[in-house]
């Protein structure tokens, strides 16, 4: 069930069967000379929508929220097309998404993330949200979970087999393959130079551009292909459903309020 | 040119020809028993992407940013599936989008809006952004513009002809028609009761739900059809291109810095 | 009843008869070569105090709060004497005024506004305040209303008769006339050049000063006179009392809390 | 020169002769059974306007900004009619006033304060404003000064002679006398009980109302009279002009930027 | 009892006997050519720990929280080693300390302050915290108190006897003596020039450094000695225990909630 | 060199030899029935001060800032004595520490962290700080680094040898051993039940206390001893010096400003 093409009575009915919602979250930022700017939000969206389709076919619908498409990408601002939130803004926005969904009765809010640079801020936001309850000694009526798509069960292994060298950590062949599989008319044939990009620390945008002239970190995106992308999507969709089901079924201990 | 399926070098090239970017912006909120929750962000996205296609065919490409899909919908929070930002969060996020795009050299940033409840906050944000420069006596290197799709030239008239009664102001047949045209498998056949919804002031969510039990305001969404939606999209896309072109060509007076 | 020359027990007694308070709100900003810097807060103050006097004479007292005299005027900062709040500050301050008055039991809080540049931010603030309740599923115990004095019943028509040309939109003859009527020793005899000021979009302060060299937009303030000002005050005071009475009497639907 | 009944070209001319502006600042809060709610902002306004008149007569005009009429009065919120800003809001608003005035070239910004509860927050705000420059190693182009009217030279002594007992610290006969002198038709004849109010610490509003049932602290406001008020105004006006002149003439050391 | 070398069950037990906690709070900032950068947080820490030891010996334990070591020192940022919070940050942090301790049941939270520049911001923060309750008409379950160590009973007199001239107001011989007594291997033998430092107003860091070239204000720190420091510590520790005991025993009036 | 027992001229001299400063950062929170509340800030302080002593003996002084002793511990607020900052407050405070130190010319700011719950927020803060420069296209004049003491070279291995079972992740025998080594009179002899604590996810404080009744996660703190603590301190001090030296020596690429 895709939230944004549903009506409110349909969501209300869904809530009588399940209290879980999955939010694809990513970033819109440069992905080297051949990667799409939307890569990091397209990947979780593609996987989540594939999972939704699978679940519907299996008669156990899951609910996918709209994609949270702009994240924390300050270090990529030296490259045209990147759009970033400051961490403090990102936190406020995630809070509002969560408090809106919690208002309707969702008790398990699952973020499927597509951008490494988002992780710290999302986790800090979870603490900021829980803290509202912790200072007041109240029970929080929902649980939050963050999973990166590349950490879904089986994916890391599949990537290491597919891309034994040149996977790198930004503009990776795996993420680019996923977008190519979903948008086959967007494949770029440029061969970057050097073929495998350099590595280094991540700081402000000017430093980043000086260290990583075409934007990639450690990757050889020419290894990406539509076929590999489809394999990753298929595997990730299955793992996502399992992971979300585990999260939905996780028991909560009896809590005392002080 | 769709920003999120472009690469950064492509955007850099685009910037040597044009300094204008169009951002579809809306809201994810209840639209009555037959309207999609995404209606208000889908409409400007649909129109902007139609315009982009038209412009590409005409050899005068325009650039469409990712859709800003969550806006200010606090009054709809009594209905499942609504996701809202607080105005203060919304402002911070718009600021970050603008400052990111301005960083790359965009000088005309055009928001195509799909939600009446967004207008005040977007305009307040424009002032907040301009104020950064005004307090320092600096020239702002970009101009901001907000247009609601229903205010595009010719659209209001077309709506009044299509829907002489029962247009209303929320979950209107015009916006629902646009989504039906773009998502023909999402047409809902429910007939709401009463056929034309009541009117009244907009306050907090509890008050809203008490006044507007199924979420609609003044509208009869059964008047929507795929055909009417397509007509609206076609007309709006043409008007959007003209309006954006006017904005791009608008001369800026010589400014003194104090 | 003027709040700031009342005592707290007097306000407590007023509250047993009425739950409505009227707040004049405006801005302190340049009004061209002949308009007073205080014009936009003096106008609503003058009208509200005239209405208060009228109501007292009629034995149906209304309560006028102190004037909120600094608003959102970032675009006027290129002209000496302008004092502006950033929209975000303006929002926080309006929230605190409202939460203070609501604390005492006021249920209808009516802002009589004198500055077009305030509208978006005030409306965004209303949403910010209502949102406190909407996210929690609570009923908001008060209603907020914004009326610009020039939108009071009968005023626009009176202005178009008085000033068929040269009314414009900033430093207008109508607002200047009102201040001249209230402060007859402050009439300025300067004739601006050109007599009718130019029009254009409003952006940051440097852009504003470049477009509107003496500060006016589209207006010929030499049309203002003490007599016209008094007519406007008299008419607006009557309309304000009617509008506030309607607001006070407006029924609230039974609300469910979720 | 009263800023809000001046035009911007007049302020621009004033700036060629003086860089100093005086801002009356206070609070709108309960002042016991006989004191006006506006007492704390009316007092500095009355004194500043008296000083302005005197200065104009002496041919050495001073400039008085609009009155900052709502301050930090959270502890008085248990009494009807009190309007308070949170300290954080108060800080943001003072910052915006200062940055607006500094934008026009004012170099000495003098706050004449009428409310003890404002002092800490105003001083914290001065540090917040200076800190903008201190972190960047920049020279701040203006100096800020806070003076309470009761600390103006000669006033404390005059009060101790006029009110040897029963002056107290809130709803004092001196401040009430000043408002009675300026608003002689607003004298209240109520005799509070007990005649001299209790003393104690100041905390939240519920605690305050429990300790100080009618709002006063340590004062006997029946000692106030129009005559005493006028004496205080006359003396304070003279002292204010001297204090502001000293501040205007204070030399600034040569500053190095790092 | 020193909180940070206690376990949580020990603090829980302490709370069954006492609801009071003492927080040493200061600043880390230049203290002239001979004073330690930590002077302003070391002094209250030294005194509080001495008091704790004394109380333990007397069988009436008091609880000392960790030291809040960074305060509001923007004006000292022109001197290496100074670390400052902006007032707004300082306020947020104090709020969080207080709300954490209040969460555990502490009802009397006593700040022993070592830095004059902190006073305004700490007091503003107390108001910000109380305001949370005052706007809602709630009773605040705790009381806050700020005492500067030099205002403890008997200390000012002792200082005036020890240092009849050259005490000054920053990098004073009294505070330096206290640190020397606690850190006898950190005595500096430099003789500053001039021996007694100049006086003047405090503004931004650039202005401060121009007025006070070596950082001191009005002081002659060569008057400090280990012996005098020890005397001050001993006296202050005794006074602190008395002052905290009075605060703990202070009755709270019955409060009505509105 | 310990910053807080140094004078500002000494720090100025240090800066002519080195631009690196090390900040111990941790948290004050429950550490089970036998761990000290200060454990997480004491550990990095103990290690950093041991390293400082070693470096001084080797004639290559390093500079240690005061300890940042309160961090992000919202989940521990159900246990008495825990003091936590909200993530948003923590971020603001870290920003101010960094901007203060950067103001003096420090170019490498190294945080030695003692609390796992701090990591996400510290990293998010680094991005917030870098973003100031990235949006403006400016070069950031300093680099930031976060290292947890347990990630220092050799420590994890030493822990796994010392504590093959029962190390766990909160109130671990390694961190408790370090505090016991430094504060030998603070060893607690309580044997917790069960000996090895349970594991689980970390959410709000009420949930935490329900899952982890005595506060520990997965650990058996009875394995801690003074001897093991000393070994860990010695090894960590050496590794810290190496890691900080590497960071100080790290070359920065030539950066272009856009
Ligand atoms: Ni990526
Ligand atoms: Ni809509
Ligand atoms: Ni106006
Ligand atoms: Ni007063
Ligand atoms: Ni000091
Ligand atoms: Ni720990």
UniProtKB/TrEMBL annotation, chains A, B, C, D, E, F:
Keywords: Hydrolase, Metal-binding, Zinc. Coiled coil: none annotated. SUPFAM superfamilies: Creatininase (SSF102215). GO terms for molecular function: hydrolase activity, acting on carbon-nitrogen (but not peptide) bonds, in linear amides; metal ion binding. It comes from the Bacteria. This is Amidase. It holds the Pfam family Creatininase. The keyword Transmembrane does not apply. Its cofactor is Zn(2+). PANTHER family: 2-AMINO-5-FORMYLAMINO-6-RIBOSYLAMINOPYRIMIDIN-4(3H)-ONE 5'-MONOPHOSPHATE DEFORMYLASE, 3-DEHYDRO-SCYLLO-INOSOSE HYDROLASE. The keyword Lipid biosynthesis does not apply. GO terms for biological process: riboflavin biosynthetic process. It comes from Asticcacaulis endophyticus. Belongs to the creatininase superfamily.
């Amino acid at each position: 069930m895709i939230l944004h093409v549903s009506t409110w009575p349909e969501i209300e009915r869904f809530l009588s069967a399940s209290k879980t919602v999955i939010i694809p979250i990513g970033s819109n930022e440069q992905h080297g000379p051949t990667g799409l700017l939307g890569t990091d939000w397209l990947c979780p969206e593609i996987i989540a929508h594939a999972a939704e389709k699978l679940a519907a076919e299996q008669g156990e619908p899951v609910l996918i929220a709209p994609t949270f498409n702009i994240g924390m990408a300050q270090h990529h601002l030296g490259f045209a097309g990147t759009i970033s939130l400051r961490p403090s803004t990102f936190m406020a926005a995630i809070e509002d998404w969560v408090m809106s969904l919690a208002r309707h009765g969702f008790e398990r809010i699952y973020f499927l993330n597509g951008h490494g640079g988002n992780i710290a801020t999302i986790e800090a936001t979870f603490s900021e949200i829980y803290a509202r309850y912790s200072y007041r000694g109240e029970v929080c009526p929902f649980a939050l979970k963050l999973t990166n798509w590349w950490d879904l069960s089986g994916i890391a292994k599949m990537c290491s087999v597919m891309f034994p060298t040149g996977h790198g950590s930004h503009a990776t062949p795996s993420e680019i393959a996923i977008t190519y599989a979903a948008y086959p008319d967007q494949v770029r044939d440029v061969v970057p130079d050097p073929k495998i990009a350099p590595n280094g620390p991540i700081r402000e945008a000017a430093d980043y551009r000086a260290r990583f002239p075409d934007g990639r970190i450690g990757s050889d995106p020419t290894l990406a292909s539509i076929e590999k992308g489809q394999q990753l999507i298929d595997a990730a969709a299955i793992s996502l459903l399992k992971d979300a089901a585990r999260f939905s079924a996780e028991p909560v201990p009896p809590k005392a309020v002080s």
